[in-house]
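name: query_chain
kind: protein
chains: 1
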Amino acid sequence: FFMAEPNEVISVEYDNVDIDCKAGDFITVFDGWVMKGEKFPSSQDHLLPLYERYVGYCDSGSVRRSVRSSQNVAMVFFRIHNAGSSFTLTFRKHINPFPCNVISQSPEGSYTMVIPQQHRNCSFSIIYPVEIDISEFTLGHFNNFPKRSMPACAESGDFVQLLGGNGIDTSKLLPITDL
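structure:
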């Protein structure tokens, strides 16, 4: 599991790879995290289809020596059968000026998410038990939007939804309130 700051993305480079793909060895980078069968970001929050989020060394070989995540988390799956086989990966962090789909590294702090002119679902996930206080809120064309729940505002276009649960897949979490 790799994690960067909320305003960064991750690149993983295949360096010295000495594995036997024909014997079933593999190295695969996943654009996001997979935990207990759940994926972050969920398929509805990620721009790429699920099959494009898995990039295997044995499938791409020397054609694709580097994989860049779409958010601040990525992970590597690998299996090596023979003693003496090995690989080296280089992990780098790059600034992402408009982060979308973030897992927080800390159970406290403040964070601003700006997603200009993008028509997509984004999420900011906190994987610790927390109390949330929204101190400032601007969405779409509305400034100083009142902090209160409005019935069916999720159907009005842009909205922020607070979800809760015990997983990382936002599509499986329960709505707490809409703003």
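note: The chain has two helices and 13 strands.
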